[in-house]
Amino acid sequence: MTTYKLLLLPGDGIGPEVMAQVERVVGALGELGIASFETETDLVGGAAIDVHGKPLADETLARADAADAILLGAVGGPKWNGVAYDIRPEAGLLRLRKDLGLFANLRPALCYPALADASALKRELVEGLDIMIVRELTGGVYFGEPKEITVQADGSKRAVDTQVYTTAEIERIAHVAFDLARKRSGRVASAEKHNVMKSGVLWKEVVTKVHAEHYTDVQLEHILADNCAMQLVRRPKQFDVLVTDNLFGDILSDAAAMLTGSLGMLPSASLGAVDARGTRKALYEPVHGSAPDIAGQDIANPLAMIGSLAMCLRYSFGLGEAADLLDGAITAALAGGARTKDIAGAGAKVLGTAGMGEAVIAAL
Ligand code: ATP
Ligand code: MG
């Protein structure tokens, strides 16, 4: 059995608590002969600022570069609100994404059957929902130049953000989306606004070309991003894979996430290009943040973090069966009644972070 090298970056707030559960799951996967890992742990975010004076040390970046995959907890918290902008905790994560070229952000929005009883959560969930949002992560309006605020002659200000996309950037994200669709229901929706944006015109043109040349077995639909937002709320189950740019993806993935129940349940992957060895750089992290309000109390839900490990098995190592086993263990633990506070309805027996980790391992 191949032993994979994982770099664990627990980070801040509830990050270390949920990562501790992943470490136990990693141990159990080894003991059960399902998958074998060697792990190394390092600092990121506020935890790194406290020790190194910056949120990502060069040695840590080098370790991230050498690892087969990276698992990250969460960064940030009120303790570091006052630090300079360039060395804020989030800058560490942004540097990891940028320097490792992690251009494709995969965010599944999946509603677990055991949680579909919305009344228990006092929220409206969409039973059977299973969408994969593929968001372009390193281009677009968040990075385009010029990006500035200037003062005009009359003293008023002018702010500029620039949306830039190249053929190559759109091609590679399109490939990720179509490849994923082949392993799912075989449908891709591509969202942009070609009616008002030149970058949308190019996006549509390039996605159409990649589809025609390589993926005619996949069903492709183009959809305007505003209509897509409406459809996500109106009839979300029409979507399988949804590919879109950085800005629209940020917004649409948050909207889709909220159809599924809790922030504590949602994993994510950020993938880079496939290199000459046939491997790709990749970072896996929960969608939720450091949740300082509940840190250190053994109440955080570790399932988003554990689900991120399952994505790692699937997308970094091609261990689809092992990933299915782990996803199945999460589903089984929930079906068996395991609940953390954030997903507990009235009368449910509430487990702590460690208790939920145990429930998943028992199911595994
Ligand atoms: P960020 O800016 O890093 O995205 P945020 O402030 O937007 O962070 P979170 O830190 O994710 O958001 O927290 C939002 C809310 O969700 C908080 O009330 C938090 O306690 C809750 N929450 C987040 N993650 C979890 C979890 N794993 N388990 C339970 N509750 C969680
Ligand atoms: Mg947030």
Automatic annotation (TrEMBL):
The record marks 142, 193 as: Important for catalysis. InterPro entries: IsoCit/isopropylmalate_DH_CS, IsoPropMal-DH-like_dom, Isopropylmalate_DH. NAD(+) binds at residues 77-90, 289-301. This is 3-isopropylmalate dehydrogenase. It comes from the Bacteria. Mg(2+) binds at residues 226, 250, 254. GO terms for biological process: L-leucine biosynthetic process. GO terms for cellular component: cytosol. Its main location: cytoplasm. Substrate binds at residues 97, 107, 135, 226.
